């Protein structure tokens, strides 16, 4: 098992190296450059442009810039944002917990609802429940997120007044970020009502963010279950006279979960990279919107180092998924 | 500073606040974006200035609320020498800087702070010039303060003398702008000693109406009223910026009572806002202009007759209705009507396709095909350039001119549109920096502006026009300046280097119980005068 992990970790090195190349090259391939965008309609004189480019090191050949970037990276320096002038790592660490919190709650919702719905739909294949839930899943999967988020805000926050419109906690609560996770920090603050406020602020964004993964997980679970239910060992289990609950819960579900876990893992990876639309609609201070803003402003250091950090996290999550996979599927472990 | 110690400091700041009781009057502003930082000097966006320059700081002089006129601020009075080269500012006494948990000022504001504020931007060798990696002072250099100011001299603790290289009337308006907000030198010295220089940008100390309390990135900024404010103290106790990037969500927050005031409503939401009994809306013509700039150096657009004819072929009223959807007015001059020096006697070219066709024929123009450039982004002065270009395309087709619409990525667009020999006419616009007509006319239409790095995208260089601008710029007689700018607009209209399209309207929706908010023609959002009634 240890060797398995080490081998996987070793694979990360060349991948990370490749990502630095892609991230560095990709943002520079896009037309437009940060100095011109900063100058805007006013324009910038050629002398001033040269001066700023020299100060930022953008007057050097591109390979030198890359080597410089890699050199700094190896010393743990991810660079400073061209826009805010602040270290990229500090910005990332300030924003990332918000993204993780939202992503985890969303994936919990998606799994907690998606898996049982998929299982029931598979068992009662062709029933009204199957038809209804799979149609709903198809709709959920094709939902335009921006529209869906606004619709929920207008209905639940605007018309009914049940949930807050946006933000992470009511503005009346004010305490230092200890972990960056609002659910935990609100509890630690000891302020009355803070935790409830944090929960109420999470409801709509996590439902919106969970919509697509929920649909994917439900459909994946259903098809995996259907496949497994036709297998010989399930028939054998039935023939042995095991209770239907045991047949489905142990023999079928455990095997069906293998592809489902992969799906969930991939979804976590995607969500960790930031939910751009959800974060924008709900004014959620996460990394998705941060990256998009940085790309549109050609904030080279943020884009290249931000992508690297996100890629590292996605890969680590995938590694963890691989490990769980090993736990539920012994065949992988023994290979 | 390590992240850990930043956290620790932030935590102690929070602890300090938590000890204070929740104040009665908290005003929440749903701002449209995150500030880039809290030192106003290295940044250029209005969002940053609202959060830093306007809330936390003051300048030597300031814009009188709701106008672009200059009034005293940290300078109580000033004199300009006969030759217009020396500006002597007499500073206000008894002005206190804010304090926070790391800094308590031992002295009041004085000339040292003024000198520090300017020197750190002007002088590349100043120890604070590059206190954060990669910072530049874009506004200082783009307003050409570096070329303008020859020296700054401390006459005594409460008198500062600026000597200029040439007489320049807009100088006073420049020193009212946020990038020269007065920073405490003593605070800088304290940070220097503690080895935490970047806190000048993280935890600002100013003399302004509000003290900075805390910023949670991309989420919330908190301020507290400055009870020692030298001007009239704010009526609200706490000011909160709830950062809400999406316009529809801002409106939902306003309707739900989660904030009291919001900027930049979506045009499609205006009717809904007007119909809401709990909201009210302030509207004002913005200090901006949207235009179509011909390249006056390329045939046939080097002929004023041709440019004039095209302007007459354009149904501007219809264009403004289609593009601005009721949130703009047709422009006849290159400067907006709220600006002093606006010449209202000028008559716009009448929409007359028949006459336009004739004029083109007289000019010998036949089967003309031209490019119209549509910018890829939305700006306050131009909500939908593509739509505007389409309207022009169909209007010009009626006089026999074929239009190809082109567009580029925004940075490229700005660059390519300033390239010599550019084909086609460019849709663009401008929002005023300091309310001075020179800030529109010189930047956008002077001979100097047509050089590389300028912003004169018609490449129009009219000696008569540029001479008038130069004369107006060096005159300190306001009445004379008004006359000169009025004259300049007559030449502009005659020569038609642009089709002036529209001035967009600024809308500020707010809760019914908000009082005292005064819209700034410069698009600033300031809250020292606001109050909440029961």
In round numbers, the mean pLDDT of chain B is 91
The H/E string of chain A reads HHHHHHHHHHHHHHH
How far apart the termini of chain A lie comes to 10 Å
> How many β-strands of chain A, per DSSP?
0
**Through-space gap between termini of chain B:** 45 Å
Let me know the number of strands of chain B. 19
Beta-strand content of chain A: under 5%
CATH class of the largest domain in chain A: Mainly Alpha
Main sheet record of chain B? 7 strands, mixed
Helix/strand/pairing class of chain A, anyone? mainly alpha
Count of folded domains of chain A? 2
Q: Could you name the ranges of chain A where pLDDT drops below 50 across 5 or more consecutive residues?
A: none
The helix fraction of chain A, in percent, is: over 70%
Q: In which range does the helix fraction of chain B lie?
A: 25-40%
State the helix count of chain B. 18
- CATH architecture term of the largest domain in chain A: Orthogonal Bundle
Membrane topology (chain A): Multi-pass membrane protein
Keywords (chain A): Cell membrane, Membrane, Transmembrane, Transmembrane helix, Transport
Pfam family, one (chain A): BPD_transp_1_N
Domain ABC transmembrane type-1 (chain A): 96-321
What does this structure look like?
The complex is a heterodimer of chains A (335) and B (534). By secondary structure, chain A is mostly helical. Chain A has helices at 2-29, 34-39, 46-56, 62-74, 88-123, 128-141, 145-159, 182-189, 194-229, 232-239, 244-272, 276-281, 287-296, 300-328, 330-334. Chain B has 534 residues and is α+β, with helices and mostly antiparallel strands. Chain B has 18 helices and 19 strands. In chain B, strands 11, 12, 13, 14, 15, 16 and 17 form a seven-stranded mixed sheet that branches. In chain B, helix 14 (385-397) links the parallel strand 14 and strand 15. The longest helix of chain B has 18 residues, at 478-495. Chain B starts with a helix and ends with a strand. Mean pLDDT of chain B is 91; it is low at 1-21.
